[in-house]
Design a protein that fits this description.
The complex is a heterodimer of chains A (293) and B (368).
Chain A lengths: L14 H16 L5 E2 L13 H10 L5 E6 L6 H14 L2 E2 L8 E5 L12 E5 L13 H9 L4 H14 L10 E3 L3 E3 L9 H4 L5 E6 L4 E5 L5 E3 L26 E5 L6 E5 L2 H9 L15
Parallel strand pairs in A: 2-3, 2-4, 4-5, 5-8
Antiparallel strand pairs in A: 1-9, 6-7, 6-10, 8-9, 11-12
Helix pairs in contact in A: 1-2
Chain B lengths: L7 H17 L9 H7 L1 H11 L4 H10 L4 H12 L17 E6 L51 H7 L28 H9 L3 H12 L8 E14 L8 E18 L7 E10 L3 H13 L16 H7 L2 H9 L6 H21 L11
Antiparallel strand pairs in B: 1-2, 2-3, 3-4
Helix pairs in contact in B: 2-4, 3-4, 3-5, 4-5, 7-9, 8-9
The chains are: A alpha/beta (293), B alpha+beta (368).
């Protein structure tokens, strides 16, 4: 366990700042999918490396919380390690790699495979919060488009994808309509995870530090990916299952084994994969005995 | 057999030890002291204070030492520290008319009341490497310094123009408190108080390039240096329990006021307009670039066509901060394999579909 750092307030931010962020969070929860501007602070970690998620976590974390931090679905990727260590030093709260044990989960690019439950909070790190940004770079314009629910441009973009490529060519960060009102960017998570936002039992909070925006999806909120009747939304599937745990329904990372085209696929969610292996599941590349850590 | 990568924490800690060793360099060379950096690298310290938006030469020098001279990294260190500080008081606006100047020039007039004062400047140095500095230089010729009395209370060139009604009068906004960029999110359209705050801590290189672009015709606004002055000003606060102003610090600043092309019409008398720049320390390249960009961002309010990048408020203000820019550009180093996997998946599927409907792909083109 890393020692608590002296000279800093609990969770780094001062209480006034936390209060300002919590107010923005309350507004975000009250208007699902709406981007609330907030007075984002400079953090001791770089912008673009999770400062939005870190500020949201810092504003809601308490001594009785258990924190899990993942990046690309894994607890042991370098930036997840770094952010978890930051909160260990700044709060001393218990941390875990177990999705089921966590009360707060800060994530980048994934939603855990294990279904979340009521009372949990999933905090997303968001680089660009504006779903219309690639279509219209100006904030003054996109805010107007949201105010008027003027989302035709996004439908046209999806239509153009289909006419050019035969399908929607957005593989991650898929645009969703929240509670039938606001168009929202899905953080960016892969398309595979998009359905998990819909009617999720946990509270989902999104923090964009550099862009100074917070948004939220309250528990059990309707979240629909944009699509067409004749081109319904669909998610990725793999021709193989996880080489370690044999899961056929999780998001798989592609591991390049050699320069001869050798590949293997393993679960991106390391906790989910470890759980399955502990329960006796095995994939084609291993036997249960080999993977005990 | 593939084994999942583990042990990020140990790797990170060792990477930081490597960085510390790298920073120290050859241990047989004496270690730099923070005081040496503060006194002998003042140009670097000034930039770190300005863009770090914290006037503290010691901490700026420390940040430079810790960042092994990497300015943007040092600015980031200072900003991250600054954000933790409580706000004890808000000072009165500094009074640059009452500056004790180290340097003061105007290019709009041959001579101005109080005179042109070159002061410590790189201008007119011939940029020849001074090999005498290679060996620790010996005693220097001591400079002649103008008396304190002749350097105080010099009238501002802009005030002379203003007295004649030749330059548009700048009035404070009526609202009680100015915008505070460090506490509130920047929103658009951004008023001039927000813009000036953003420009003051904007990346010098970014402003320099934008200012330069206006000189080359991308939003030209015909600038003259009305006045550049560098020197010390006092910072005053009025504690409510005292009811009168007290002097809490003297700070070194550089101010640049540009006189730019006039606005007006057949019915309204033409007046020159002003671009304003202010930076901590002896930082006139930054102050000048800031003044050019401040003026070009006023295009819309002065009824000019907005056609160039330097006139586009949202474009300039959204991309001027090097702590933001550096973080986001460098975040591309973080793992992105989940999104890349999703994209790979899509591209492979699209290629398979194209392959199914067309004949063999044409490879011969590469030979042409």
């Amino acid at each position: 366990m890393t020692a608590l750092l002296d000279g800093y307030n609990f969770a780094f931010l001062d209480e006034q700042t936390k209060r300002m962020i919590r107010r923005a969070l309350l507004k975000a929860v009250a208007i699902p999918g709406y981007q609330v501007p907030f007075g984002s602070r400079e953090m001791p970690l770089p912008y673009g490396w999770g400062t939005g998620g870190i500020q949201v976590t810092a504003a809601v974390i308490g001594l009785d919380d258990t924190l899990k931090v993942i990046d690309q679905g894994a607890d042991d990727t370098t930036n997840a390690v770094s952010i978890r260590r930051f909160f260990q030093r700044m709060t001393g709260v218990r941390t875990t790699v177990k999705t089921r044990e966590a009360t707060l989960i800060q994530t980048r690019h994934r939603v855990p495979e294990t279904p979340l439950r009521e009372g949990q909070i999933l905090i997303y790190q968001v680089p660009i919060p504006e779903p219309l940004r690639w279509l219209e770079p100006r904030e003054t314009e996109t805010r107007k488009m949201h105010a008027l629910s003027e989302y035709g441009a996004m439908h046209v973009k999806l239509y153009e994808d289909i006419s050019r490529h035969g399908q929607v060519s957005t593989a991650y960060d898929y645009p969703v309509l929240v509670n039938g009102r606001y168009l929202m960017r899905s953080s960016p998570i892969p398309k595979f995870d998009t359905p998990k936002i819909h009617m999720c039992a946990a509270l989902q909070l999104f923090g964009a530090g550099r862009e100074k925006r917070i948004f939220a999806v309250p528990p059990y909120t309707d979240v629909r990916p944009l699509d067409f009747e004749d081109h319904p939304f669909s998610v990725e599937s793999w021709p193989t299952s996880c080489a370690l745990c044999g899961s056929a329904d999780s998001f798989l990372d592609e591991i390049v084994l050699d320069d001869q085209g050798g590949r293997m696929f393993v679960c991106s969610d390391t906790d989910y994969c470890a759980d399955r292996r502990a329960a006796g599941h095995a994939g084609p590349a291993t036997t249960p005995a080999e993977v005990t850590t | 057999m593939y084994v999942a990568v583990k042990g990020g924490e140990a790797a990170i800690e060792n990477a930081h030890r490597l960085l510390a060793a790298d920073r120290r360099g050859d241990p047989s060379v004496p270690e730099l002291s923070v005081a040496q950096i503060r006194e002998q690298m003042s140009g670097a310290v000034d930039r770190v204070m300005t863009e770090g938006s914290l006037y503290d030469p010691d901490l700026a020098a420390l940040a430079l030492k810790q960042a092994r001279g990497d300015q943007v990294e040092a600015i980031f260190l200072l900003r991250a520290y600054r954000t933790t500080l409580p706000r004890l008081a808000v000072s009165a606006p500094i009074e640059t008319s009452r500056m004790s100047v180290h340097r003061r020039i105007s290019s709009a007039f041959k001579d101005v009341p109080g005179g042109q004062l070159l002061g410590p400047t790189f201008d007119y140095t011939h940029r020849l490497l001074d090999f005498a500095l290679l060996a620790q230089a010996g005693p220097m010729a001591s400079p002649a310094v103008a008396g304190e009395a002749s350097r105080r209370d010099l009238p501002q060139v802009m005030d002379l123009l203003q007295a004649e009604g030749l330059i548009a009068v700048e009035t404070a906004t009526k609202s009680a408190a100015p915008f505070d960029l460090t506490r509130e999110p920047l929103t658009f359209p951004a008023a001039r108080d927000a813009r000036l705050q953003n420009l003051a801590r904007a990346d010098e290189g970014f402003l320099l390039a934008l200012g330069y672009s206006t000189q080359r015709g991308y939003g030209r606004n015909h600038p003259f240096v009305g006045e550049i002055r560098s020197g010390t000003v006092s910072v005053e606060i009025t504690p409510p329990e005292l009811g009168f102003a007290i002097d809490i610090a003297d700070i070194l600043v550089t101010e640049c006021q540009m006189v730019n092309q006039f606005a007006g019409s057949k019915t309204e008398k033409p007046t020159f307009t002003r671009g304003y720049g202010l930076a901590f320390g002896m930082a006139e390249r930054k102050a000048m670039a800031m003044a050019l960009v401040d003026r070009s961002l006023r295009a819309e309010e002065l009824g000019e066509d907005v056609t160039a990048p330097a006139q586009d408020i949202e474009f300039v203000l959204s991309h001027s901060d090097n702590v933001e820019a550096s973080g986001f550009v460098q975040h591309l180093k973080l793992p992105h394999h989940v999104d890349f996997q999703a994209e790979l998946h899509l591209v492979r599927r699209m290629r398979a579909e194209v392959g199914a409907t067309t004949a063999e792909p044409v490879i011969a083109e590469a030979a042409q």
